[in-house]
Specification:
Strand 7, helix 6 and strand 8 form a beta-alpha-beta unit. The protein is of the alpha/beta class. A 7-stranded mixed beta sheet has the order 9-8-7-10-11-13-12, covered by helices on one side. The chain has a 6-stranded parallel beta sheet with strand order 3-2-1-4-5-6, sandwiched between helices. It has 10 helices and 13 strands.
Length: about 290
């Protein structure tokens, strides 16, 4: 019987700790720079040793928030992480993998997969993101949500999951999307659908705005139109602040709050998020027993 491939898990937050813990049910695991090392995993102090000992490399999600270092308990630069990919490796996983790492993988004929492009990860991850959005909305809404009208910007995976959950809590939910088919799908799901370009003239009616669009395209600043106690949650790109002339992540004198909310699954549900990543790896590689 051939030996089971060894996963080398590099850096990351609690999600990668739980990923490693889940992988240990089926495969050997080496950890390097992780927040913690689960029982049964080998802890490697040096990245070159960890990479050499593994068959499959697992990087964080996102790979590098600042473009210079990967999140790890001990410093690991992006350059060091890219050099860790070797011809011996059977696969590389991570979130938002940089082009430089993809180029090295192609050069060495090492297959790679970005979790953000894997349906087995992105779909359940959208559910956790939506549930995290609800938590953030409740946390920052002193009056609760039952009388609140909410606007969801975008109707992709996260938009759909957020809209259906907010529907059960808010007085009304309206989806703003460019695509008319998406607007019809929103109405089929029991919420309202409006063209995105209508938002500036309608935004004052909403107490909660949730942006799920990675690249915001709005006709200019909408801050002057916001309700005086509106809560704005950007769970996608952080670029909604480009259209709101107010400091993000702050309580404003008027009562308006604009909050950037990246990485909600890792923040609120790291165990479930880590297991989703682990199952995504095993499913992709057909390694389930």
């Amino acid at each position: 019987m051939p030996a089971k491939p060894v996963f080398t898990v590099i850096g990351g937050d609690k999600r990668l700790y739980y990923l490693a813990q889940e992988l240990l049910h089926t495969n050997p695991v080496i950890c390097c720079g992780t927040a913690e090392t689960p029982d049964g995993a080998v802890c490697a102090g040096r990245l070159p040793d960890a990479a050499l000992g593994g068959d499959i490399l697992v990087f964080p999600m996102p790979f590098s928030p600042d473009g210079e270092n990967i999140p790890a308990s001990s410093p690991i630069t992006v350059e060091e992480a890219i050099r860790a990919v070797l011809p011996k490796h059977r696969h590389v996983f991570g979130g938002r993998l940089p082009e430089e790492l993809k180029a090295r993988c192609r050069e060495l004929n090492v297959p790679f997969s970005d979790w953000m492009e894997m349906e087995t990860v992105s779909l359940p991850n959208a559910i956790l993101t939506a549930e995290g959005t609800v938590l953030e909305a409740l946390r920052h809404s002193p009056d609760g949500l039952y009388r609140t009208k909410a606007a969801v910007l975008g109707y992709g995976r996260c938009g759909k999951a957020a809209a259906v959950r907010l529907k059960s809590l808010c007085q009304q939910v309206t989806v703003y999307a460019r695509n008319p088919i998406q607007r019809m799908e929103a109405e089929m799901a029991g919420v309202c659908g409006e063209p995105l370009e209508m938002l500036p003239e309608q935004v004052e009616r909403y107490g909660l705005l949730v942006n799920t669009i990675p690249s915001m395209v709005l006709p200019g600043d909408i801050s002057s139109c916001l309700s005086s106690d509106a809560l704005v949650l950007d769970i996608a790109s952080g670029k909604l602040a480009d259209h709101i002339d107010i400091p993000s992540t702050q309580d404003l004198g008027s009562g308006v709050q604009a909050i950037i909310c990246p990485g909600l699954p890792g923040k609120h549900f790291p165990r479930a998020a880590g297991r989703i990543l682990a199952h995504g790896c095993l499913t992709h590689l057909k390694l389930f027993p």
